[in-house]
Amino acid sequence: MVNYPNGKPSKPTDLVTRKQINSKIEYGKRGMKFEDEIDRTNQYYLQHDIAIIHKKPTPIQIVKVDYPKRAKAVIKEAYFRRASTTDYNGIFKGKYIDFEAKATQNKTSFPLINIHAHQVNHMHKVFQHGGIVFVLICFSSLEEVYLLPFEHFFVYWQRYLNNEKKSIQLKEIKKDGILIPYTFLPRIDYLKAVQLFYDVSD
Amino acid sequence: MVNYPNGKPSKPTDLVTRKQINSKIEYGKRGMKFEDEIDRTNQYYLQHDIAIIHKKPTPIQIVKVDYPKRAKAVIKEAYFRRASTTDYNGIFKGKYIDFEAKATQNKTSFPLINIHAHQVNHMHKVFQHGGIVFVLICFSSLEEVYLLPFEHFFVYWQRYLNNEKKSIQLKEIKKDGILIPYTFLPRIDYLKAVQLFYDVSD
To answer: Among candidates B143, B144, B161, which has minimal Cα distance to B3?
Structure first.
């Protein structure tokens, strides 16, 4: 359904580039911090029986495995693969929830190159099937995190596909999204924002 | 919540054994076939816009990555980790769906050692949160696949924890579960069984 913008063909392989891996396994301090904070938030939700939301493991293509005697198996050759879904999903108040989380160092806009077409396709389908879908966007330099509901995100994505704008302006995110204030526990209480925007009743 | 039966302590590490990996990455023909059939069924559901259900990637702990110049990154050392959730989840008719799929060569019963306590804990939580949860059990020698709803599975799991019986008898599965006949497309139409058992309306 969705092609890469600017007429660029999508890559023939789903193996990811070094730059993508770096952002994937989060060598960047900021990225690490954001993903870590979401993980802790999800642990909090789990421990307090609020929601069951997990991060999906990074997809890996395994080529070679060694089985040393009396030791655990060692993967000796493997490659990163591109995910075909978002990173997080689960259940909240009986509803299916699905989201992607991305951090940017940019201070005024969120570059859409951070999100893959596969993931948007996936989110779009989930949205059509009645799931709660959104993108969590962290402006690391500003220390601000926003929840942008998919229905709003998708308008900007289509603008991107039409080669009109490569990013979503922070002021647009402020208008259409919900600021999630940092709290002590949980760190990023995104389900509070979900409850503000979506009809989720007990 | 749930401990291993027979008073055996759970292993101090979540790294899995060779035997578990073999069953995990499905060297066994039967296992491969079953997992493959579920994957194809899920693809069918996706293509026909029936449901969005994906298998989660196998969790891997990455230790060493090489970045050869002008080539894709290579994982040189990594280990299998035990999953903390089930293998499959997604959305069907707006509902959260979550299940584990297991094959056995056994002809008269399903040995519960095939399922990890972590996974049962996860399924139990999802069940309490109103998700549709079940186990798909494939008796490969008989070429029969059953859907066993979690609420029934859990009774047998508790019997297992009480050291009463290490497996679920096929006749018990026939009584409490639903036989999923093999069809051409999709191969294992488990959502038809879901609709027979659960209240899922359009």
So the answer is: B161
- Counted across chains A and B, CB pairs separated by less than 8 A come out at 132
8 Å CB contact of B129 and A67: no
Which residue, chain included where needed, has tokens 């899922």?
B200
Contact B73 A21 (CB under 8 A): yes
- Residue-level pLDDT at A30: 40
Residues ≥6 apart with Cβ < 8 Å to B199: none
CA distances in angstroms from A137 to A114, A116, A131, B112, listed in the order given:
10, 14, 19, 42
Q: Contact, A131 vs A95, CB < 8 A? A: yes
Strands (E), A27-177: 51-55, 60-66, 74-80, 88-92, 95-104, 109-111, 132-139, 144-149, 167-169
Secondary element (H or E) of residue B135: strand B132-139
Nearest to A72 among B15, B65, B90 (CB): B15
Q: Tokens 């396709």 sit at which residue?
A: A121
What pLDDT band is residue A10 in, cutting at 50, 70 and 90?
Answer: very low
* pTM of the model as a whole: 0.84
Chain A residues 86-145 within an 8 A CB cutoff of chain B: 89-98, 122, 125-126, 128-131
pLDDT digits (tens, 9 = 90+) for B117-161: 999 999 999 999 999 999 999 999 999 999 999 999 999 999 999
Could you read off the pLDDT of B68-124 as tens digits, one per residue? Answer: 888 889 999 999 998 889 999 999 999 999 999 999 999 999 999 999 999 999 999
